[in-house]
Amino acid sequence: MRIKQQLFPKTIEECIALLVEHEGKARVLAGGTDLFLWLKEGKAQAETLVDISLIEELKHFESDDKRMILGAALTHAEVAAHETVKSCFVALADGCRNVGSPQIRNIGTLGGNIVSAQPAADAVVPLVAMNAKCMIISASGKRTEDIENLFKGVGKSSVDPSRELITEIYVSKPAGRYGTGYVRMAPRDAMALPVVNAAVMVVARDGTITEARIVTSPVAVVPFRTKRAESSLIGKHVDDLSALGAAAQLAEREAQPRDSKVRGSGEYRKSLVKDIVERALIKAVEQIG
Ligand SMILES: Cc1cc2nc3c(=O)[nH]c(=O)nc-3n(C[C@H](O)[C@H](O)[C@H](O)COP(=O)(O)OP(=O)(O)OC[C@H]3O[C@@H](n4cnc5c(N)ncnc54)[C@H](O)[C@@H]3O)c2cc1C
To answer: I want to staple 71 with a disulfide (CB 3.0 to 4.6 A). Which of 60, 87, 191, 270 is the partner?
Structure first.
């Protein structure tokens, strides 16, 4: 299928109308950092590209004491630099700051990072740890989904970009004190993919941990929550460093990375999981204070 045209809707309604009009032969285009490569390599097909870069609503940012709302077309550079993101959800700011190079961060978007469905995507791993949700709009209506549930395998998303548009991402601010942490292990090359990464969110009341979410990748075909490690932290005091270490040890046991020519052997990457999860947990509890 050859690309015949690139269209520039200015509103979400216009974008959906164009997707409907082209009956599955059009595709949403955001920054194009992934999509243009796939089109060139024949891994994706489209006759019409529906470029969402002029839709101002998709650049929306809002925050109050209950939640933060991020437009799906915000770039990694915009998210990483946002003062509210840096102060409320440092893991997301750190994740976005680690994407590719400045050029990639200046055009690559949150929505594209989610729909590309790479398990270790640098914005996605923190978003899953933060229990983020997103709004998906199509001709059949609107739905809100946990971002964690959109992943169906490596490069496989339940969002169909020939019919559906992610418009906003929602992150609730937990009641009680909380902190987040992100750690990425990669070669020194600035464009390197993570060998392994981890993001966590820890919530506490009166110094006792009431909720923990720990995500590490790529150790499975989707961003991987280490649920036994998470539950081991409930009821522990935030100052209990041995409990953080024990949780990180459990995370290492749960992770099952495969051998990879580009990222290293499964055994090597498994051995890194404890260290990066422990460092991410320490970052998070330091914010709880
Ligand atoms: C050199 C290089 C280095 C990279 N390094 C990293 C890295 O370190 N970490 C990392 O995580 N990623 C990296 N990436 C991958 C890529 O930059 C990110 O995944 C980026 O966030 C994709 O966003 P985009 O706006 O460019 O998406 P696009 O390429 O425009 O789109 C990607 C997919 O998402 C769909 N889509 C986009 N927006 C929406 C939406 N709002 N609703 C529905 N569907 C949508 C498109 O149709 C397409 O299927 C790298 C890419 C390159 C080329």
So the answer is: 60
